[in-house]
Amino acid sequence: MAATHPNDVLKALMHRARLSANDLALAVNAAEERRFGQPGNASDRHVRRWLSGRTELPQLHYLVALLDVFDVEADQLGFTLTSKRSEQLAHFKLRSTLQEETSTESEDHVLRRQFMIAATGNLLSFAFAPLPESGRIGMSDIDRLRGTIDRLHSVDDAYGGEQLADIAEEFVQQIESAMSRCLYGPRVEKALYQVIGELHASAGWFAFDSGDQARAGRDFDSGLRASLLAGDRMLQARIWAYMSRQSWELGRATETVTIARAALDATRNGRDHRLSALLHGRLALGYAASGQGSHCGTALARAETALDRLGDTTPPAWLAFVGPGELLGAAAMAYMDLRQPGTAVDQEEQGMRLLDPTFRRNRFAKAVHLSECYLAADRLEEAVNTAEDALDLYPSVNCPRWAVRLGRVRAKVADVGLPVTTAFVERYDVTVT
Asked: Which of 205, 336, 350, 427 is the most buried (most CB within 10 A)?
């Protein structure tokens, strides 16, 4: 029997992309679907056979998908190609499923990348803004760093942030490493701590949305420390807005109000109107959870007034989601806590209509919540129809916190026994599995 030779080239490609065998199998299957219209059937077993050398040359469809995933030439996968297979591959115009950030060839060698498997199965690549290996860090470097943070939030808006906390935290480590080896002045130092605080804030939100509350708390604490070093009250208020939402999620109504008030007080004279709306919405949630309906109504009215004052300025990426649809969703959550599901339905229905379609992750969350509102209002058929809408988005949105709640909707309707509920449960089980 001929000796097998491990494919160290493929192993190195996977290590660079931080892909496990199962991750690569998912990416290959998604690449095949993009190419051929049907998902592939690769498994982690296939990948292990490629790595070990037991499969010396994968089938053509696997090879094409691998080339698309890694965006390399056919002879850069570590397999020994026959002349026939090389001729077959030449017929395919290679198209990468790596959605990489635009950069010139001269810059690309200094970009450090992080990878994730998107909900769609595609391999997403994030190009970290390059920092000097030595010498000075300048404000132009800071501008590039902030551009990378904005791109993280763009992906969160579209896909959800299940794996984005890893990427944000890795970026912090790269920045801190650059700070230890480079020179910079006081102005740049302040800006670097602002960026680190922003990244920890983003990582905390991504972790929160993925259901990892302990990790979210650690990132929020680290973000607050960085914001203090930067002397940035607006960044502190942003993190407090996240923490207030987390406190409400954890059932701490009084803490929800206290944190939101602190953020409002700290930024009284210089707040963005969107931030005002967000913080007053957080107050409304806390008041509702503690049964203070009058205070809740006042907070919602102040949030609406803040939105009415919005101008034409472009909001920062992390705050872009705040608009009428978001505020109506917060009102719906508050009215659910006040045990007024009919009013909650009205608010969330309007919120769905007003939500910017680019926020697919939020649309998924709102569909799940509207389904919960319908159930509480004894409107079963509408609840199931709306849960179906959420299920349409489920394969392309990584949002574990709301996915769990969709599972609870399924559990509540599972024993009803009506055709509409039976069909939904069957489709849910197939889709989620």
From this structure: 205
Q: Are 333 and 321 in contact (CB under 8 A)?
A: no
Same domain for 158 and 191, yes or no, is yes
Rounded to whole angstroms, how far apart are CA atoms 207 and 329?
21
Pick from 356, 380, 397: which residue ends a domain? 356
Domain that holds residue 302: 251-356
Q: How many domains are contained in the chain?
A: 3
Q: Is residue 95 part of a domain?
A: no
C-alpha neighbours within 13 Å on the C-beta side of residue 105: 0
Q: Do 139 and 221 reside in the same domain of the chain?
A: yes
Would the pLDDT of 339 be above 90?
Answer: yes
Give CA–CA dist 191/199, Å, rounded: 12
| Average predicted confidence (pLDDT) for the chain | 87
Residues 202 and 262 in one domain: no
349: Cβ contacts below 8 Å, ≥ 6 apart: 370
Is the CB of residue 288 less than 8 Å from the CB of residue 334?
yes
Residue 113, SS3? strand
CA 187 to chain centre: 31
Are 219 and 165 in contact by the 8 Å Cβ rule? The answer is yes
Beta bridge partners of 183: 136
- Report the distance separating Cα 202 and Cα 118, nearest Å: 18
Give yes or no: residues 221 and 142 share one domain: yes
Q: What is the pLDDT of residues 227-281, one digit of tens each?
A: 999 999 999 999 999 999 999 999 999 999 999 999 999 998 888 899 999 999 9
Q: What is the pLDDT of residues 8-55, one digit of tens each?
A: 999 988 887 778 888 888 888 888 877 777 777 888 889 999 999 888
* 313, burial (CB in 10 Å: exposed 0-12, middle 13-18, buried 19+): exposed
Lowest pLDDT segment from 138-142, 237-241, 427-431:
138-142
Choose between 85 and 296: higher pLDDT. 296
- Extract the tokens encoding 98: 């790596």
